[in-house]
Amino acid sequence: MRTIIVGTRQSALALTQTQHVIDELKELCKQHGLSYQFETKKIVTKGDQILNVTLSKVGGKGLFVKEIEQAMMNGEIDIAVHSMKDVPAVLPEGLMIGAVPKREDPRDCLITKSGKGLDDLPEGAKVGTSSLRRMAQLKAYRADLNVEWIRGNIDSRIKKLENEDFDAIVLAAAGLKRMGWEDRIHHYLPVDISLPAVGQGALGIECRADDMQVRELLALYNDHQTVLAVAAERSFLSALNGGCQVPIGAYAEVIDWNEGLEPKLKVTGLIGDPEKHQVWKEAIEGNVPDEMGKAVAERLIKQGADRILEQYRG
Ligand SMILES: NCc1[nH]cc(CCC(=O)O)c1CC(=O)O
């Protein structure tokens, strides 16, 4: 009987996500009469070692995945569970995303000291984020806010809200929900105010492209609507040659599923300028995810928005 070795980062969120995926894969094995066992192996990534530094200044795409991919290519591990938003647009030769399961809540959310929402924050309130995308959008919505960097895993960011003089912090709702901390969320930011990061809320299971046993198992785990939506968002990402540390966002959703025959999607893409408090946004509807993300990116490039990204590309 084969044991599938699952590589994971050591953060609380990574361990929780990995365990959740293993539980679901075990259930799928049961349903389909497959007899695989699972084992986890912890791996420290460069991103984990430098969590206290401003990542956009350190630069480099895939800070949280490189060491894990190396271990997969070496055969030390067989699969890895990633937050799709941490996965660079281009994967190394020989590796692939074998499954994208059903997406969690894609929205950003606020945890506030007062327990109130964004509109109730006092003038000049100090809001912590570690993302240029969130920074640009918050400032575009409310120029008076004092948006400042806050780094660390979600647990340490929540502690900083309590111990430092932040009035609020912005986080992905999905991470909090997966940790069972949904009750800490005081305000969900609508996607019109804070367009999420590419792939936010979705997980991706990476594997070797030549591992057919694992690929067959993972194919059972795909959620087809999430696969299409994430494909559209990632085509936007690759068209802009962006990573997780540039001020861009994209959100796609299936708006007409029609039993999987020519499903219709809506894709919205955004480029933000965190210094000038400006955002550019475009949306289109269609049914070819790879072309739609690219088309949205081209419209934004035509408006000159992509020159903003030059300063942030690693
Ligand atoms: N860049 C960090 C990161 N990568 C994935 C998540 C959790 C949410 C998700 O799965 O999108 C987070 C934390 C956050 O942005 O608040």
UniProtKB/TrEMBL annotation:
Keywords for the protein's UniProt record, in alphabetical order: Porphyrin biosynthesis, Transferase
Phylogenetic classification of the source organism: Bacteria, Bacillati, Bacillota, Bacilli, Bacillales
Family named by the database record: Belongs to the HMBS family.
Required cofactor names: dipyrromethane
S-(dipyrrolylmethanemethyl)cysteine: residues bearing it: 244
Assigned EC number: 2.5.1.61
Function: Tetrapolymerization of the monopyrrole PBG into the hydroxymethylbilane pre-uroporphyrinogen in several discrete steps.
Note: The porphobilinogen subunits are added to the dipyrromethane group.
Enzyme class: transferase
Assembly, per entry: Monomer.
Protein name: Porphobilinogen deaminase
Domain Porphobilinogen deaminase C-terminal residues, every copy: 228-301
Molecular-function annotations in GO: hydroxymethylbilane synthase activity
Keyword Transferase among record annotations: yes
Cofactor annotation comment: Binds 1 dipyrromethane group covalently.
Segments forming domain Porphobilinogen deaminase N-terminal: 4-215
Substrates-to-products reaction catalysed: 4 porphobilinogen + H2O = hydroxymethylbilane + 4 NH4(+)
